Structure formats: structure tokens, C-alpha cells
Amino acid sequence: MSLVRDLPMGLMPCWFPGDSRPKLVVKASKEALLAAKINLGFKIYMVPLLILGVRTIGLVTAFFDDQDEPLVITTPMFKEAPEHDLRRLISGGEFDIHFFDENNHELLGYEAKVHCLVSTRDHLQSSALLEFDLASARSAIDQMGIWFGLRSDSDDLAAISVEFGESLVPDDIFIQDMRPKNHLYQGSRPFSFTQLHRKEPGAFQERDIVQLLSRIFAPEEIYLNPLRVTDKEEIADILVITHSRAIFVQAKDSPNVEKILRNAVSRKKATTVKALTKAIDQTRGSFRYARSKSPMQMIVGGNIFEISLEGLELRALIVVKELFIDEYSVYSPPILSLAKELSVSCISLDYSELHMYTMHLDDEEAFVEAWDRVFAHGVQTSMFPRLRFGLSN
Prior knowledge:
Helix content is 36%, strand content 27%.
């Protein structure tokens, strides 16, 4: 589990002494896990790459919620042991596979078989791999993204199919967490629970976001579902209040069920815009209340808190299910307009982005520095960037 916790996202092959079946750990979003479960498998594409004049390969693992634009994990391949182990594992016939979400909950597990063309297996085993360096990794990921978007029917036929057999984890697993250290934030109950299928997503996502933020902020700085004292309506979904800052978080998710997962990408994009629009209006209301009286009064977990915002730097964060990179020109203007209206720094991240921020950034100052880079770029260019983690010095 220590290795799982340290894996941001991706594939991790494992061999254990005395166990005849190798294991593959997959850490991915709840949407990718649900797609794998519904399809009883997924595909791995071997992508031809040209890096530093050498022909090599990378892997794109695809979870087909949508036939044309599935959810993917990109894996550059280098000479280091993990890539050799991964190549050896998917070249073989059978293994066990274990799926974890971003908060390290094991939600799926299966016995699995690999099906692929002989030519694909031969190419996989014989391809040259380079020594690792960051520039090569960045180039590999960029090339894989372009190649996958332009893949052909023959590329689909040549992909490695991973087919699920007997389940190793109950299909309707329900995980309850009663560890005190995970429930020290303001407004927490003594326990929490999670599951893969989510018909009513809001409370699940809010608790998940709290767990992500707890990697950076102290639990006593995090307030879940703070309410106005005036009408008992939510001020924000989550508040983070440190010695120098107050971050107002609005979260938007949608059900994690097959019907929603199968929606066309065009509909998912429209849903994101709708969610952002609603979150922007709610953020405006949050700041209206916060500035209406000093100190700000709120009810959290049945207790009344009075928080002085004087001297604190105010920020707004909107977290949505998914942002699409080709739609940032649509997302950015209304968020920048809100930031100007409220005179605060405001950005939006999707859930997977927030996970990567909190996995790779060590503390509040590093988190804020990354935030400021995104916001400054947005102000300067009128479009926010999407940061990539793990690929820089």
C-alpha cells in the first residue's frame, strides 16, 4: 500500500514471492474504473515514437467510456525496471489486476487475460527503450497524445486487449473508513464511506476533495459544508482557512453511473460549462456573505464559528468533474471576469488535476505558487493553462 499511495496515477506491475500470478495495480479516476467494470476490460495501445533519433514505444491504456475519445493513461517506456516489468507482464497470458482510486481505495479486482496479435507481442518485446530523462518523457507523452487522437481502425485491431475473468473484489463493495486521523477536519463525522457507483455524487466528492486537501493543509484548517447563520444555506462546499489565507471551494460532480458515463463527449463538455456557470454564481454568493459582516459567522458540524477575514488573502477555487483541454478558451473568460469582479484570485481545476496538485506539491506555499502561475498566465493571455506534474525538475 505504501507503493500505491506514492503512485500518482498509472500502472504498476508487481511480483510477490511465492505467488505464481503477477499483479497489475491500476490507479485511475472513478470514471475510468467504472468504464473498466462495465466493459469487463480495457485496451493497451503500443505507440510508435521517435525520440532523439531513436525509434521506441510508449503505451496508452484506454478505458472506453466513449468509443472515439476514451479515458486514457499514458505511460512512457524507458529502460528502468518498472517499464521492463510492465512489458513482461502484458506480454504474458494471465495476471490479477487491482484498481484503486485517487484516494487509494481498492474498488475493483479481477483475474485477467491478455489477448493480442503475435506481431504486437513481438514488437513489444523487441522494441528499443531509452535511458530515462525528463525531456524524453515530455516528448513521449506529447507524441502519444497526438498519435492516439489520429489512430486508425488497424491500430485498434493491433491493440492489446485485457479481458476480465473472475472478480477478486465484490462488485458492490462499500468501504467505510473509521480511522480517526482521516476525520479530524471541521464538520467531520467519526467515519466516512465510499463506493464506485454514485447516484448522488455531491457528498462523496466533497469528502474526497477534503482528503486531497488534507495532504497539504492541517485538518483544523479545513471546514466541510459551512452554513450561514442567517438562513442555514451553505457558504461554500469547503472552506480552507490558514493563518494567511481563506480559500472558498465550490465543487461540482455528476453521478458515476453507466448512463452518465456513456454520454457523448459533446454532452459532457456542455455539462462542464453548465457546472462552471452554477459554481461561479455560488462563489459570488459566498463572497457576498463573507464580506457582509466581520467577523464572518458560520455553522459547521452544529457549532458556530466566528472567523475574522481581516488581513487574510481571499481565494476562490472551483472543482469540477472534468475539464477538456480544447475548451479552456470557453472556461477561462467567465472565471477571469468573476476574479476581477470579486478582486480575488480564482481558478478552476478538475478533480484529477487537484489530485495531481496535492500529490506533487509539498505544502501550502508550493500549492499557492502553482495556483499563482496558472492565474497569472490566465490574466496575461485570457486563457488558463493546465499544468503537468512529474515532468519538470
